[in-house]
Amino acid sequence: MRLSDASAVGDATVALDRGLLTRGDRVQLLRLMEMMRAAEERGLALYKQGKVPGSFYDGRGEEAISVGAAFALGPRDRLCILHRDLGAHFVRGVTPDRYLANYMGRAGGVTGGKDGNMHFGDRALGCVGMVSMLPDMAPVANGIALAFKMRGEPRVALTFFGEGSTANGQWHEAMNFAGIHRLPVVFVLENNRFAYSTPNQLEFAVDPVERASGYGFPGVGVDGNDVEAVFTATAAAAERAREGGGPTLIGCETMRMHGHGAHDDMSYVPAALREEWERRDPIDGYAARLVAELGFEESEVSDVRAEVRSYVAECAERALASPPPEPEVAGEGVFAERWQPLGDGAAPWSRWAETGADGARRAA
Amino acid sequence: MSSSPTERPAEAALVEVAMPQMGISVAEGTIVEWRKRPGDWVEADEPICDVSTDKVDVEIPAPTAGRLARILVEPGETVAVGAVLAVLDGAARPGQAHPQESPPPVAAEPPAPELDRSGFYSPVVRRIAAEHGVELERVEGHGVGGRVRKADLLAFIEHPEPEPTPEREPALEPAPERAAAASPAAEPAELLGPSHREPMSPMRRQIARHMVASRRGAAHCTTVVEVDFSRVVARRRELREAMARRGVNLTYLAFVAAETVAALARHPVLNASVEGEEIVYHEDVNLGIAVALEDGLIVPVIRQAQRLSLEGLAAAIGDLATRAREKRLHPDEVRGGTFTITNPGQFGAVLATPIINQPQVAILDLEAVVKRPVVVEREGEDSIAIRPLSYLCMSWDHRALDGAEAARFLGGIKHGLEQAD
Amino acid sequence: MAELTYLEAISDALRTEMRRDDSVFCLGEDIGAFGGAFKVTAGLAEEFGADRVLDAPLAENAIIGAATGAAIEGMRPVCEMQFADFVACGFDQLVNVAAKLHYRQGVAVPMVVRLPSGGGFSGGPFHSQNPEAWFLQAPGLKVLAPATAADAKGLLASAIRDPNPVCFLEHKGLYRHVRGEVPEGEYTVPIGKARVAREGAELTVVAYGSAVHLALAAAEQLGEEIEVLDLRSLCPLDREAILASARKTGKVLIAHEATRACGAGAEVAALIGEEAFEDLDAPIRRLTAPDVPIPFSPPLEQAVLPQLEQMKEACRELLAY
What we know:
Chain A has helices at 23-48, 63-71, 86-92, 96-103, 137-151, 169-181, 208-211, 227-242, 271-278, 282-292, 298-321, 350-354, 359-363; strands at residues 78-81, 127-129, 157-162, 185-191, 194-195, 198-199, 219-223, 248-253. Chain A is α/β, with parallel strands linked by helices. Chain A has one domain: Thiamin diphosphate (ThDP)-binding fold, Pyr/PP domains (Rossmann fold). Chain A is globular and about 50 Å long. In chain B, the strands form five sheets. In chain B, strands 9, 12, 15, 16, 17, 18 and 19 form a seven-stranded mixed β-sheet that branches. Chain B has a four-stranded antiparallel β-sheet with strand order 1-8-6-3, with no helix packed on it. In chain B, strands 5-4-2-7 form a four-stranded antiparallel β-sheet, with no helix packed on it. The longest helix of chain C has 15 residues, at 6-20. Chain C is an alpha/beta fold. Chain C has helices at 6-20, 44-48, 60-72, 91-105, 132-136, 149-161, 172-175, 210-222, 239-249, 264-275, 298-304, 308-320, and strands at 2-5, 24-28, 53-55, 76-80, 112-117, 142-144, 166-171, 179-182, 195-198, 203-207, 226-230, 233-235, 252-259, 285-289. Chain C is built from twelve helices and 14 strands. The relative contact order of chain C is 0.12. A seven-stranded mixed β-sheet of chain C has the order 3-2-4-5-7-6-12, with helices on both faces. In chain C, strands 9-11-10-13-14 form a five-stranded mixed β-sheet, with helices on both faces. Chain C has a two-stranded antiparallel ribbon with strand order 1-8.
């Protein structure tokens, strides 16, 4: 393959001054967050009903981050999505039935039963599945960004990680490498207060967002429970990356409202802290804001939320109907016969729709 | 090096040190250790090496004074009886430099002793033999330890030897000794629990081979008689103290030995050996007495036992047993047996089927003497009495005799013991 | 044909493949203008530019992780570990991310990790290892270990074109001591095919890497009917070639410089034991390093690494068996 053969990607520069989000975009943001909440609640219920083998992890309280960040990306951008970021999968086009089927180890799950819980990524939607070791996807996102940079494509790689990951040596290796090569990569840090049970003060002496400057790129702190703030910061970071400005670390302050997994009762979390963050629920907060500040009707908002809940319920039925995988599948696919490109994901942000279903490609 | 003849040992002055014969069944011995190195001066009768055989561990004394010229068998190696172990230069004088002194051997790993592998067949050899219907015993092996290699078998198939003559066929003579380790498939380790593995001692290995060969070669039968030891107990009580004063320990075994020697005179076929299709009758009763050792078993021999009295037999048994346990037996004392008695009864056993000590035709086993209730008949009336009883178990070779003879032989011993006076 | 050293053949493969395919690039420590610790990449930065012969910071996980990401996106990265030993620092990315991506979600990772391996020059415990067996326990990785200059070129080219992560073990002792005829221009050797380096009927020596040369020298000096099977590829293993040779000779010696327990040789022995038991005329034997780290001092290192005399002795024993 020669470089000239690679599909060239046009200029997808986003004007970030004002009017970024249409009314339809905001409905989407609300809808996707609610979808994540509802799907995870459903998954937890299936887990408690014994339908989900292994363990169960969710991102309750962190819905604004994955939805807001992924919403800013274009179809040909690539994502490495972590385990508290179900919303990002939904943004890209994964449906809740495939998510739930994956949790249940069914053939209809994203990995077809080969991997469980949140360890998936739909390659057809431009996503690379995470592994349990953290933050292993940061060096991988670098590599994806390196490919974009080497080919001169205005595309972005984005990965998430928690503040717990920032203690690992690979985090330093990844930040350093990205800084040296000014890679078009966006790092979304979710500081959800605890690495399992370990609180912030035992995780780091210097806030990781501050550390970004030490690697030669900006660290931006945002309210991780404000979906539009996360979206805006990510859109800006992505634009900067596309223009050759290099990486950005977006530090999202949030709170993990459930245990590390369903097996964790969070006894280590002070009640006051929980109550404080209950009041800052990202979905209820955004719904209220849509009504109070952005001209939405109360019923409009509640209809969106109700509609998506009934959609998730339908999806759950489909997931339950999905058969278990055939045992012989276990022996298949260790080696690839050929390389195939990742597919492009959905990009529901109206800005991408304005330039066509695949604006970036058309611009070329 | 000077060519002056005075400084070169004349070939005539070279004295060979050979592997001694250490027992009737002993065909080979293993060098345990060399106490001298080439070039060392040795006095006559000074131990120069240690040899282990199936029966005894012995020091090999130098046959002459001189300088150890060459070592031909390294520690760990097993060689046949008669093999030359080393060469001494009997013409050398103390202090004189050895003209052929070789550098001291480097501490090389001793080569593994070459095992007899003539009975081992590799998977491919078994398969090809089965496919071609070849009797592997007929194939001459040229591999390690006489092993039949694939190449040997293929050559055999290509050029089969002439049909064997009938004389060679009958299975009267013992089958070739197979490796004693031809054991069934090992148990799965997880079911066995913790274990550890040790190589068999040379003695253990020899016993194993010898016993397996005996079982294969001889037509074993075992006959048992019950003997009332009341009279023996009484006689022993009478004689014991006087003999003890003379340094003799009178045991039940001595009584049994004495009656056995007497019975052998009446039944010469039991004081014999089978060789091919012939029976060799021995004039002397060379009575082997099995002695249990910590790590095995040894059978010292009382020569011309027919000349000994009860006390003489008791004394000989005591002496041989003591020296056997102290490993002080002379090699000649463990060979040449014509009949063997074993005595596991001393450890409480009541019944056994011993294996014949080849090439003898029988082995008598004395079991524990225990008090049992028995029916005794006195003046036509049956009554229950308590009597010291024991079983005499004899394994005998059906090739040499039949059951009636064995029973009569044992009956004679029984009678003698029950009438002891 | 050109006569090249093993090292030149590797350079030649890199250059040829980089000329052929723009997506091929090199990534590693000191590999750019400096040309690499062993000068394998010397001259490449001049020809292809620093962007395609990328100097990386001293961070093996960052290197292998970046290669993984770039490979996912259709590049063909060739990472150099400065010494094979240092792959331990990038092990996580290799075995947890790259090896499993295709199995888990069908994402192919066409990348090569070059691993200068092996001892014999007082490199000590951290510059002498033969870590191939580490990767044989990580399904999803291919593992190659060429012995000749031609195979070094042809297998590296194949590795670069393969859609999977490939660990390419290049023995440092062969770099400048082994030379041979190497086809010019584009040249590939199929992955997963062993090579009969010498034919014989009495004994098979299964070897790879440096041990192939020991086996050939032993066979030559003994003048016996010894077959030498050069595995070239440890994963996938050429089962058919191994079994064919074992069935032919009935006697097998397996030799490698790597340590013994659970080494590649153990797998070969197990394969023969399972599949060709009834063709064996002797126990399967191994000649390997013992299970110790590679020591520094020359007499100690020689005591650990398999030597020619040991190879000859092992052959003699099996021939006589």
